[in-house]
Amino acid sequence: MASGRWWDGVRPYVEPAPLASLALGISSAFPLTMINATLASRLAEAGIEKKSVTAFALVILAYNLKWLWAWIVEGVKIPVLHRLGQRVSWLLVVAALVCVAAIGLGLADPRVSLAQTAMAAIALGIAGATFDIVIDAYRIELLEPRQLGVGAGMGQYGWRIGSALVASLSLVIATRAGWSVAYMVSCAFALPAVVTALVMGEPARHNEITATRPTEGIVRAVVGPFAEFFRRQGALIILAFILVHKIGDTLANLTFRLLFNDLGFTKDEIALYDVGVGFWALLIGVFVGGVLYARLGMKRSVLISLVLMAVSNLSFAGLAGLGHSNWGMAGAIGFENFSSGIGGVTVVAYFSALTDLRFTAAQYALISAAASVVGRILSGTTAGALVEEFGYVDFYLLTTAVAVPGIALFWWMARSGLVDRSIGSAGTDGEGDAHRGSPVSS
């Protein structure tokens, strides 16, 4: 009996769809990491001032604006390749575009032309955001409703594994062979998603938009996702939570590499702690997130994760106060990854369950883009200036404080029943009223 119970707990993690989520997460992390963490280190090394470094966060606004063109992925068929399926064909094409854009950014030199580097980063941002659109839709449609929590956790595992490996490997290669080579080698991280698409094929739950004329299908792809979402009860409140819940976390994340550089940590030290302590803390966090999601349900597990993610910013205030401390860096990175691991299971599972299977790509693009748009704008326009004005300690205290409204709003949504009523058909069997009897909102 004990052996059976043990296997029942492990089985969901070794099923094909959650394993596919792991591989998709690895590839999804690659372009964003090359823009966010790796480019920040590269610019700092080139002697670019902090205000310009943090302004590069505006480059990844493409991830927040991707809902503007998600309808293309939803409604436009790629000639010839469409025989492989709508999701598979788009994934293969966009993976190739991401690699081309990454190589272009690697060849740009910020010391020669900051403008050229910015244009190359924008190209990678747009390609990476489109990659995210396809990957997120493919992941959600591969998973059954009962697998959303496990799939979110495995996707988080993959994203963090990919992010840590891309960030650390690029630093190691850049130290020995230069940044151009580092960006070229990073393209290998697009392969897990490509292989997954070829092996798994088109998702069974994908509901392709049907129309008698191509223009009719495009109109449905553009209008349908918004019309369906905003017809839901409390849609504006749900959108408000999505917008504000991650402000503090997003605002703080961009400055971590600046903090490490100012405290005198070497590339090898950053790589060691990101991959070593951060990686294992993430594994533990994702596991704990899965347990919380299964034992406490969606509402309580999401609320706990929101609190932990806010408090994790305090650990970096502590590191800033300590100065160059290996133990302090290990603790800060460890707690941040632990908290993010929990949130990656609970919050992503909730956001995935919000989508309607008729418009998975477009709706999840809207949700995921909205989730960090406010924080990205603030980080790109004020983070560097705030650090220079107040110092790192007070800056991280501020990022903790601005996370409180999101926590309070979700608490109210849970108490009022709005969380349960907000679930879309991706969180059910895809039939009937998606807002009743959802297995993910118990």
TrEMBL record:
A GO molecular-function annotation: transmembrane transporter activity
UniProt keywords, alphabetically: Membrane, Transmembrane, Transmembrane helix, Transport
Main location: membrane
Keyword Nucleotide-binding among record annotations: no
Transmembrane segments: 20-41, 53-73, 88-108, 120-137, 181-200, 270-294, 301-323, 329-352, 364-387, 393-414
Membrane topology category: Multi-pass membrane protein
InterPro entries: AmpG_permease/AT-1, MFS, MFS_dom, MFS_trans_sf
Domain Major facilitator superfamily (MFS) profile: 17-417
GO-annotated cellular components: membrane
Family according to the record: Belongs to the major facilitator superfamily.
Cross-referenced PANTHER family: MAJOR FACILITATOR SUPERFAMILY DOMAIN-CONTAINING PROTEIN 3 (PTHR12778:SF10), SOLUTE CARRIER FAMILY 33 ACETYL-COA TRANSPORTER -RELATED (PTHR12778)
The name this protein goes by in its record: MFS transporter
Organism: Sphingomonas zeae
